[in-house]
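Let's practice the habit of predicting before peeking. Look at the sequence and jot down your guess about where helices and strands might fall. Then scroll down.
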Amino acid sequence: MSFSHLGLSDKVIAAIDTAGYKTPTPIQEQAIPHVLARRDVLGIAQTGTGKTAAFVLPMLTMLEKGRARARMPRTLILEPTRELAAQVEEQFIKYGANHKLNVALIIGGVSFDNQDSKLTRGVDVLIATPGRLLDHSERGRLLLSGVELLVIDEADRMLDMGFIPDIERIGKLVPFTRQTLFFTATMPPEIQRIADTFLHNPVRVEVSKPATAATTITQLLVATGRESHEKRDTLRRMIRSAEDFKNAIIFCNRKREVALLHRSLLSHGFNAVALHGDLDQSARTAALEAFRNGEAKLLIASDVAARGLDIPDVSHVFNFDVPHHPDDYIHRIGRTGRAGKTGIAITIVAPIDQKSVGAIEKLTGMKIAWAGEPPRAEEPSHEGERPRHEGRQEGGKGRHGGGRQRGRGGRPAPRHGSPQQTPPAAAPDQARSAQPQTPRPQQPQPPRERTEEPDDGSHLPAFLLRPVSAKA
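Done guessing? Here is the structure:
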């Protein structure tokens, strides 16, 4: 089937032809006719399936009739992150080349005044993140009573980021009679509840099973030690030895780890940029632009970048941390192997990550191959201690009572360091009862976190040695 059979307008078809697309993806083929028929749609699809165009193309067709009124957008698209919102705006610019529509992007990190001036002129399409949209509404600078079509994109990501209460508030500001398009990659119970609240007799469009990765992605596991410096060393070795390497996105679980790894890679001569939620908008935009244009070969990111980023030619994905949630693994590695191209996804696995890897393999229904030797099944000196100390606050009472402070590695600090910690002489009865308890042999301390040795970059390929400012 071609785009001309979906009911799109001639102006939209012309823009699609100019962009070079001939055949709609399954989500576009199934969803677009229902959107044009003014039906509510529940779309379940992974990123990279073309779902953005599945609502942008019919929306452009529908907006050819009518005109925006000041401060009253006709359509509203909600995105969980600034980057996703900016990419949707790019789609409207590309496919709306033959239309005279006003599109406004309302996201954080940008001046309120500039956004207010756009709203004053009248907006046909408003693309927004939930927090900034509510800020404008509460200041009385935006009315949503004219919204005819509401799009909630990446709904499960909205849930992960805590935006569901904001989404519910926004739902009360738009007309009850609006048409709603609801897109998500997974359907946990809370997302099903929200979908039931927002949608009226929806058409369900599901084009791929949740948690399936593209067959063009080669997935590998690499074993490493338990210390952070060992993981960083393993990552650098993997980057240097990667075959057909062009660029890579490196994922961490925490924003703090993104910043630490970014500084480490820069100090070792890699041209890398970072992307996480604490960066202001200008820094995030600069980082993405440097990566897209090839100035930076490495993008270190938290899961804010795991979904929807339209970077079409990423050769490698590295999971520096195994994701906490198996679903996130699919979204991360989906940044490579897009549009039929091949890609490689490498996950660095410390001993503590074995259960998380098992959960990923259970979700995907496949075993992931090891590059090199898998880790040992267990490490008694560390794993045996973990359940005793896990969750205990420093200085709190353990199961033996006492509230002794603990030194590095979770072991008791030496008693002889302070007179207050010297135990009193035992009474005779206590001494007799204590005789059978022979002292435990002192276990070797785990190696302290070392400072990485300077790397002169002599092992780096030349194209990895063009430094990029750490400001990005």
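How did you do? The two ends are 44 Å apart (CA to CA).
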